[in-house]
Amino acid sequence: MRILIVGCGRVGSALAKLLAADGHDVIVVDENPNAFKRLGQKFKGHVVIGTGIDYDVLKNAGAATADGFVAVTDGDNRNIMAALIAQRMFKIKRIVARIYDPPRGQMYRELGIDTICPTTVGAKLVRDRLMEVPWNGLQPFDFGKLTAVSAKVGTEAAGHRVREIQKPGRIRIGAIRRAPGKVSIASEDDVLESGDEIHAIVSPDAISDFAKFFGEGACAEVPA
């Protein structure tokens, strides 16, 4: 894939190096030439000096043929403006913008701009570590309307069938790992065993119901 990244700060440079190492064609845009030092001498991508909210700069950087676009400058306004130019003028399909202000992030997501909010993500990570929630791998979808959860089956859930735990539109168990290398798509008739690792999609209002089954004896972290 050809990925265009606007902003060569800590996140932008780290992302650029990861994507380049994965074999993608990466172009990084930043108005500060010194910022490209973060990429290191082994970086195999391309760099373009200029602002990411200038149509001509993005055009010269290859936006017209880009498969993905990321805006991670230190300003919300610049990130959104760059993302909108990428979306509306260059018709790039995959766009992600970093937004520090949660309400603004939600508003722009409704315009079709996928946003990442470090403020919200960081707060949730701290909360979960502080409260010792009995699952990990929490990943929000569409601003918290759904959450992906991994948990280990303890004494409370062992012996229950999947259908007893699932709630239509609120809790759906997708997969069960019973042993290393033994993963299956969950069936409503599957009976959970102690030590099983389950992967579920849960709505925010059902987290407490989910915890009734997995809150006891499930404190061990499960790899995502």
Number of helices: 7
- CATH topology of the largest domain: the name is Rossmann fold
What is the top-level CATH class of the largest domain?
Answer: Alpha Beta
Question: Structural class per helix/strand content?
Answer: alpha/beta
Strand content: 25-35%
* Average pLDDT score: 83
- Contiguous runs where pLDDT drops below 50 for at least 5 residues: 216-224
What gyration radius follows from the Cα positions, in whole Å? Answer: 21 Å
The spatial strand order of the largest sheet comes to 3-2-1-4-5-6
Describe the 3D structure.
This protein has 224 residues and is of the alpha/beta class. It has two domains: 2-118, Rossmann fold (3-Layer(aba) Sandwich), CATH 3.40.50; 128-214, Regulator of K+ conductance, C-terminal domain (Alpha-Beta Plaits), CATH 3.30.70. It is 29% helix and 27% strand.
Which structural traits does this protein have?
224 residues, alpha/beta, Rossmann fold, Alpha-Beta Plaits, 2 domains, six-stranded parallel beta sheet, five-stranded antiparallel beta sheet, 7 helices, 11 strands, elongated, disordered C terminus
Write the layout of secondary structure elements.
Elements: E1 2-6, H1 10-21, E2 25-30, E3 46-49, H2 55-60, E4 68-71, H3 76-88, E5 94-98, H4 102-109, E6 114-116, H5 118-131, E7 135-141, E8 146-152, H6 162-165, E9 171-179, E10 182-185, E11 197-202, H7 207-214
Parallel strand pairs: 1-2, 1-4, 2-3, 4-5, 5-6
Antiparallel strand pairs: 7-8, 8-11, 9-10, 9-11
Report a brief summary of the structure.
The protein has helices at 10-21, 55-60, 76-88, 102-109, 118-131, 162-165, 207-214, and strands at residues 2-6, 25-30, 46-49, 68-71, 94-98, 114-116, 135-141, 146-152, 171-179, 182-185, 197-202. The protein is α/β, with parallel strands linked by helices and 224 residues long. The protein folds into 2 domains: 2-118, Rossmann fold; 128-214, 2-Layer Sandwich (Alpha-Beta Plaits), CATH 3.30.70.1450.
